[in-house]
# Entry
Amino acid sequence: MTIRVLSALSAALVLAPVCALASCAGPQDPLEGVPAFAVDHPSVTLIDAGADPQQLDLAAGDAGDTAQWDITVAVSQGFAQQVVPADAVDTHAPQDAPADTTTLPLSVSSGEAPAPGADEEAAQRLVHVTVGEHPDVASAAGFEMAWRASATGAVSTVKLLAPDDSTEQDRQAVERALLTVLATNVVVPEQPVGVGGSWSVDTRVTGADAMRRTTIYTVANIEGDRITLDVQVHERPARDSVSIDNDIAGELDGQTLTVDSSETTSQGQIVVSRAAPLPVSGTVEATTRVVYAGPDPVTRVVQDITTAIEYGT
# Structure
């Protein structure tokens, strides 16, 4: 595997003319004609069915319309790297790693997915997200993302559309945050699950080809349409070795590194609703420390990768 700066989704991000974000000549789908990109199918494994198991169909609350639902989401992301002596490496992931936060007011709608278009699969649910105004990313108001998903929440394809007059800095910040929202969204098993039950979801991290994530959900409570989930996250490199192809890597540029260890520190609890396409409240935080060995046997490269998301801020 070779580490590069841009993901496939980033490189293919579409810029929208202003007309596409407003009503220029009658109603139209602003994402019509935007290419759809496949998302890796997650592997979902039931660990424990729990007490009085029931079907957790996440599309059950869709009423066949696309009524708008508003929520504010805060996405924090951090990356730190250092070269340390091999005999001084601490393999444990830190609890409070520094991270930059992007706050996004989102207008979200969901409904029955239409017939698939080019490069799309059949799906039960279509989710459409529009970013509102926030001073942190002012020029990216109107940024849109849409995805098609199964009734379990597994996403098959995604579309991204940025405002034409948005700055590169704001576009990148919003794209990273939205892809984190997508990558951390809940997927449930096809089998019934009750209180105390748990399952794991294993997938490649969308927008970060070099990492895989296993998320373990445990049902803490079910009350009506709302399900409270305790969340644990484990991340690790997707490959045992990586090749550095990045000028900003300095002395590491051009080197091949092998994974010595990886460990994740995480905590989280969220509330999901059958009537909402995103969690309605809660927080999930995770920091993964990856230790790499390179050509120099007396040093190690230590990377800390932090992701946190808070719903309903």
Residues 168-183 form the longest helix (16 residues). The CA atoms of residues 211 and 237 lie 4 Å apart. The helical segments are 8-11, 168-183.
